[in-house]
Structures are given as C-alpha cells and as structure tokens.
Amino acid sequence: xxxxKISELTTNRLSIYLRCLNDLAAHGIKTISSEGLAERFxxxxxxxxxxxxxxxxxxxRGVGYYVETLQKDLTKILGLDTEHRVCIIGSGRLGTALxxxxxxTRTNFSVxxxxxxxxxxxxxxxxxxxxxxxxxxxxxxEKEGIDVAVIAVPSAHAQSxxxxxxxxxxxxxxxxxxxxxxxxxxxxxKTVDLTISLESLSYFLAQPAQETGKIVKPIEKNxxx
Amino acid sequence: xxxxKISELTTNRLSIYLRCLNDLAAHGIKTISSEGLAERFxxxxxxxxxxxxxxxxxxxRGVGYYVETLQKDLTKILGLDTEHRVCIIGSGRLGTALxxxxxxTRTNFSVxxxxxxxxxxxxxxxxxxxxxxxxxxxxxxEKEGIDVAVIAVPSAHAQSxxxxxxxxxxxxxxxxxxxxxxxxxxxxxKTVDLTISLESLSYFLAQPAQETGKIVKPIEKNxxx
DNA sequence: TAGAGATAGTTCAATTTTTCACAAATTGCG
DNA sequence: CGCAATTTGTGAAAAATTGAACTATCTCTA
Lengths: 225, 225
What we know:
2 copies of one chain form a homodimer. In chain A, the strands form 2 sheets. In chain A, strands 6-7-5-4-8-9-10 form a 7-stranded mixed sheet, with helices on both faces. In chain A, strands 1-3-2 form a 3-stranded antiparallel sheet. In chain A, helix 1 packs antiparallel against helix 4 (about 65-75) and helix 2 (about 35-40) packs across helix 3. Chain A starts with 7 loop residues before the first helix and ends in a 19-residue tail after the last helix. The first copy, chain A, has helices at about 10-25, 35-40, 45-55, 65-75, 95-105, 135-145, 155-165, 195-205, and strands at about 30, 60, 65, 85-90, 110-115, 125, 130-135, 150, 170-175, 190. The first copy, chain A, is of the alpha/beta class. The longest helix of chain A has 19 residues, at about 10-25. Chains A and B meet through helix 1, strand 2, helix 4, helix 5 and strand 9 of A and helix 1, helix 4, helix 5, strand 8 and helix 8 of B. The first copy, chain A, binds a DNA duplex through helix 3 and strand 2.
C-alpha cells in the first residue's frame, strides 16, 4: 500500500497494537492473525490490517503475523529504538508527578531537566533531576541535548512557554495545559487534557440513562436583554 | 438544529469552549462572536456555531454570544453543575498523583476513596482520603455514594478491575491503564493513555524532518521461516 | 422605520476515517 | 501434487467529521 501521509489515529493504534503484541509475547504466543488480535483485544481486524499495510507487508497469508517480528517492526516504526531527552516546564504537582511517572515507566524518553520560576524550587533536585531557572532554558536545553518538552504550567502561561520552547528549536512538545495553543507547522504538539476527560464523563452522567451520547431537550433561545 | 446523537468530538470541544469563555470572562469581555472566539483561540468558527447549535440557540445574530450566559449554558450542558463522587483504584504513583491533582483542581468531582490490594497501604490516608481494601469495594461504593471510578492499576489488572467496577453498577469510568478494555454498552469508559501520547511524539521524531506525519520507506516483506 | 452591517444557524460539499468484501497468497493434508 | 482452508492486503462503499457558503435574523443609525 502507498506510504503517504499517515493519520495520527493510525499511529496511535500502532502504539496499541505494540502493547497487545507485548502481552501476547509474554504469554508465549508466536503468531497471531488480525482476527485473533481483534478478538482478544476488542479491536477491528480490517483496521489492524490496513494500519499495518501503510508501512509494509508484515503478515503471511494463511498464517497471520509473527508476534516477535511485528513487535520489532512496530518498535522501529514508532521510533522507540532511539533515545530522547525530555524537559518538563513547571515543577508543581503535575510536573513532578509526570517526572516521577516517566522516570518509573522506563521508556526511550528520559527526563533530564525540570524548569520553574519559583526561587524556592530552583536549584533543588527531584529524584536525580535538577530544577533549573526558566531563564536559563536555552542554555540548559543546549547543554543537556533536550529534544522534547512537556508543558505542565498553568493555562495562563502555557502559550508563552510554548513560544519559548519553539524559539530554541525543540520540535516535539507535550502539553498538559487545558487551553488551545497556537503552533507552527513544523512543531508536533500533543495535548493531554485531563479536564476534558473528566468533563466528558460529566456530560455522560448528565444525560438521562439511555445510550451513550443522546441529548434530550435543547435549551431555550437567548434574547437581547 | 436536531438534537440527536452528539459526537464525543463535539462534547470535547464544548469543554474547550467553556474554558475559552472563562478566559474571556476573566478579561471582562461581555460578548464574543464565533469568529472572534475562533481567532483568539485558533478554532474554526463554523465548527463552534455548529457544535453549539446541537444544543439550542445561544447566540444573537448580529451580536454574537453573551459570554456569561453561554458559560452558564455550557456548564449545564456538560453537567458541571452537579457533584460527583470519585474513587481511584490503585494507590501507586499514578493513583496518588491523580488524587492529588483532582483534589487540587477543584471541579465538580471529588475524590472520596482510594483502593488498593497492598496491606501496607490499606487503612492509611492520603490527604484526607482513606485507602480501602479492594475487597470492600462494593460496600464502600455503596456507603460513600460513589458514581465515578478511576483505574490506575497496572495494565495486567485493568480488565478485572473494570469488571469489578461495572459489577457494582458504576457507569462512568476513567482508565489510565494503556491497554484496550472490553466494556458493556451502557458504560462510559474514557481512556487517557500517556504511553500513546509519548509514542506519538516518538513517531514524529523518527520521521525525517518534513511535514508532520510523512513516512518514507516501507519495511520489507516477511517470509515464512 | 428603513436600510446597512454583522453574525448566528443551517445546508450542502469536501475530506477523512472506518468498514466491508473479495482477490491473491500461503499452508497443510490427502 | 492439487485442493481446501486460512488469512493477508486492498479497492471500493459507507459513515463520520469538517469546512465553506448561504440564508435568516438582529442591531444600530440616520
């Protein structure tokens, strides 16, 4: 199949497939068909085949996919075989929790710096990660070879932090501030919005108990005061 | 407009609009047009109008939307005017960080219980939230009037925890375990996958520096061993 | 109070994403 | 070896989502 622009929905699913394969491998399973994968993990087999087909031919007709081989292929496709150095801007509750979390779940990303504006925090360490003054951002990024930034500051400061991040040439950014940010085309910004997630549940709970996502009465029209 | 099935993409955007309105209100702005909202927050004006139109007529032609009124309407639509009681299953790093985070960011959700299997943790308190034995799940849910559950356990246990949650009648679940879960139709499961988010950045960084999301060489075909 | 200007609500077209269904390829058995 | 059983990869249909264009409505000014 043509390897053109790949949708983010597709790459997100590749992440999921990889974790499913890890699970299968841990259970000693050697080969799996798309149908088998779909059944075990509540996925759609046609979608699995199509997603994989964007990147090459990994399967063997009549057999399925070799778990171990596909694991390796996906790892490579997702770039999980190269290391990245991450900084987190904002060493508040969320920032420190993230530093902790990412430290703990060993991945190819390692947190090498935290940044803050708070005099009381600057100079301290969280685990073995130094908290730096945000004013020294450019030089620390340079010195530490940082290529990924995580925004964990209050919404009001998120845009200016993003501008700072892009100004030093970092191209991959993860944002936890629940506000839309303006980005340049060449930047990859991934927003995780814990607020939306909760409000999504809130909306669901506010609906009369029927199927998910039905609405009943439209609210009456506003008029000029 | 017809108020039929509302897409989750739409309700997610309502959350975003609400935060934009909060921002505007904080700046003392009284009215805003869809175009104005779109420009300030990098959104699409047609989409804003359409999303809102699913729920009623909130705007005044020739004027726009009244910030304060629309805030109230969206708050109501999203069910943010009613309180919900949340439990978090898994009091490890992630679980405690989430308890902390949700406690801190005052919303209409309050964390009222943590659950764990670890004897050392059971009976302790995190802030003023009790850590309970997972074996007493049903009775604590009943006693505390819990209607929302958060899964913050390792992937391997996520499905059985979800089954437990649904067995006691909880309908809204937030899942942080990075594995696909099987759910009943009447349950609302919202997964936040911090792993996917990172791997998404990893994929981006693995691509040759062009536009976002291009792929270059398909991997060669597998053959039977 | 009539007309110009602004802007919401709606319809329709374009795009993206998912799903279906089938031809092509591979294996294993008789 | 040849045929039945599998299962992939893919083209095309269907569904969902987005975006643009149009119409209706409201305000304000003269």
